[in-house]
Amino acid sequence: MSKYKDTVKRYFYCFILGPFFMILEASGEFILPFINANIIDKGAAVGDTVYILRNGIYMLFIAIGMLITGVLGAHFAIKGAAHLAADVRQKAFVKIQKFSFSNIDDFSTGSLITRITNDVTQIQTFTQSLLRGVFRSPVMLIGALVMSFILNSELTMILCIVVPLLAFMIALIIRLASPRYTLMQKKLDGLNNTINETITNEYVIKSFVREEHEKKKFRRVNEELIQKSVSALKMMLLLQPLSTFAISVTTLAVVLIAGKQIMVGNMEIGTLTAFITYLSQILMALDFLANIFLQGTRAAASDRRISEVLSAEIKLNDEHAAHLEQTIERGEIAFKQVSFRYFKENAEQVLKNINFSIGGGELVGIVGSTGSGKTTLISMIPRLYDVDEGAVLVDGTDVRELSLHQLRESISVVLQKNTLFSGTIAENLRWGNENADLEELRWSCRIAQADDFISSFPEGYETELEQGGVNLSGGQRQRICIARALLKRPKILILDDSTSAVDMATDARIRKAFREELTGMTKLVIAQRINSVKDADKIIVLDNGEIAGVGTHEELLQTCVPYQEIYYSQTDKEEEADE
């Protein structure tokens, strides 16, 4: 409950005034039938118009008061619940931003989306109902019982039998419904995962003509959610017929007993009318409380899921950072006997006993076959993952001893997937430096060989990009991502196969600009094409998670068999293409 404490303190007046005004409204609910009974029995029965008008005015003022207090109570309840949900959603989002990749792996994208949207909405709905009914319904229930007893104690005994039985049935329904809501939320996770995956990969789906497959897959997941939703909600649907049956049976019993009393003159018509009204109020109050409890059951499941996010241990943090203020000055990198596995219980390692060093300002190529561990290797430097064994050093200091903020501020990574956002090209570039002026934008784009094609657009750097930059070619997206990384002016620049969609001539111009204009920046380039790295200061060759060789292009051609195989396979393909 600590996650709600701050919000409750800040908006305490909502959590006090909401129930307070609802109690006032409920008080009017059980006063009105009593006055109405008096109008019938004492006014209408004897034709006392003055009495009828006077009490009618009382009822009018009470009704107006109920209207005002009801609106105020709803206003504060809605406001308090909305702020509570917004704060919890914000806390969850902030926590997710701190997640390492391994933390995200523990959940899933769809599950996190469900938790931060649907689960928070469940808590908001429950809180709103709680503030509106947690005191109103008991007040109405108790008030109506008391007024019923005052009117006719004999008839009230019927209620004393029916109410406990109905309460028992409601408790049983809630007990059965609780686990079903948890299952329903899990199926909703699966649905959101499927939607996220399908929309993200729409181009792949269309290119492989897999629309029908995805439709069937979605239909299956959707039907599973329907089944679990129906299973959970049909328990809730039992409340209405159960309450209706209770009201009908109780009303019938009251009418039978009251009819005899009226016939012998022990009860008047107005009293019977008021008693039936109180009966309806009692059962309605029970029904409302039952709905709150059912919503609470679902909200409790959502609360547990949100708590899992908020209480998740951040696996990458500054807990052991002894040099929080230290900045990266030279960009020197060293791997000392580094080993790593994604699934810690597996014996198979992705990286095995990696050792090498890179001087500040060097251009280093990293090559290897698919699955050799290239991307995993460079992920160790900005601490996207932590090593299992050994150490990664930057400027002679273990990266685990540096502040994550300082470390990542000094490193720019252009990953294989080129991620751009809705907005202008300039807005996307300024992710690297939000204060950069147009000249700085053009500087980074000239190095990345992006300035020419951007300038050719009618709107230039103010050209609007669609989500993901789909209105650009793959090569154009890659170059904008490289420019964005350069705009950060990092000490270490990492390019993970980031020129794969660029033609060889443009690739050569980018490499030339790197050498001429980024002399003080350490540059690591993962590449599939040997031509992209053959002029590097050194090349690291990975093979099955191990270093197969380190050296210049010429040295590796003489000494490293995996490098020779990659080089000659590409050379043969180029010769075949020329023919």
Set out the fold topology.
Elements: H1 2-10, H2 12-44, H3 49-98, H4 101-106, H5 109-133, H6 136-151, H7 153-200, H8 202-207, H9 211-237, H10 239-263, H11 269-310, E1 333-340, E2 351-358, E3 363-368, H12 374-379, E4 389-394, E5 397-398, H13 404-409, E6 411-414, E7 423-424, H14 425-429, H15 438-447, H16 451-455, E8 464-465, H17 474-487, E9 492-496, H18 504-517, E10 522-526, E11 538-543, E12 546-551, H19 553-559, H20 561-578
Parallel strand pairs: 3-10, 3-11, 6-9, 9-10
Antiparallel strand pairs: 1-2, 1-4, 4-5, 7-8, 11-12
Low-confidence stretches: 575-579
The termini sit apart by 72 Å
Overall mean confidence score, pLDDT: 82
**Percent of residues in helical segments?**
55-70%
Give the strand content: 5-15%
Topology, number of strands? 12
Biggest sheet: strand arrangement: 6-9-10-3-11-12
- Structural class, by secondary structure, is alpha/beta
Radius of gyration: 35 Å
Biggest sheet overview:
6 strands, mixed
Summed up, the helix count is 20
Shape: elongated
Task: Summarize the structure in words.
The protein contains 20 helices and twelve strands. The termini are far apart. 36% of the residues are buried. A six-stranded mixed sheet has the order 6-9-10-3-11-12. A four-stranded antiparallel sheet has the order 2-1-4-5, with no helix packed on it. The chain is 64% helix and 10% strand. α1 packs across α2 and α2 packs antiparallel against α3. A hairpin with a 2-residue loop joins β4 and β5. It has 579 residues and is of the alpha/beta class. The C terminus is likely disordered.
